[in-house]
Amino acid sequence: TEEEHDEMAYIYVFVQDPHIPFVPETPENLIIPHDFFRVIIPCRASHPTASVILRSVPAREEISNSYDYKTGFIDNLPPGQYQCETTVNGQTFTSDVYTVKIEELEKVEDFEVEVKASEETLRAGQPLNITCIAPSGSGFQQ
């Protein structure tokens, strides 16, 4: 309902790591259902200003530059395999390989996402742990 939507809040936390520049993916998130209008390749960088490009696999052809650091690449892509690439301190890193496949999308029923914080209030400098628990699978995206 509209009331529930007004109470929703979003937070995006970056954990910068020069040795692991892409957020690790679970295997089920590496298979992307093909959509004729847009496909989301969810390779997300651990740094908001990272320059990320999308390449086809195995040809290594640069495909897209429509990158959103919170979502990944959103583009009209044909079925195939893709990999994200970035350079950190002169070293090139590649993401896992994402496979875009034509398949019937499963109908996703209503689901719950549980968010827990280690503390309700804290002072500057105190550690904070946030845990999100949600269903996994191709119908869900981090």
UniProtKB/TrEMBL annotation:
Keywords: Receptor. Pfam families: VEGFR-1-like_Ig-like (PF21339). Gene3D superfamilies: Immunoglobulins. Signal peptide: none annotated. The keyword Phosphoprotein does not apply. Coiled coil: none annotated. PANTHER family: PLATELET-DERIVED GROWTH FACTOR RECEPTOR LIKE, PROTEIN KINASE DOMAIN-CONTAINING PROTEIN. This is Platelet-derived growth factor receptor, alpha polypeptide. It comes from Nothobranchius pienaari. The lineage of its organism: Eukaryota, Metazoa, Chordata, Craniata, Vertebrata. The gene is PDGFRA.
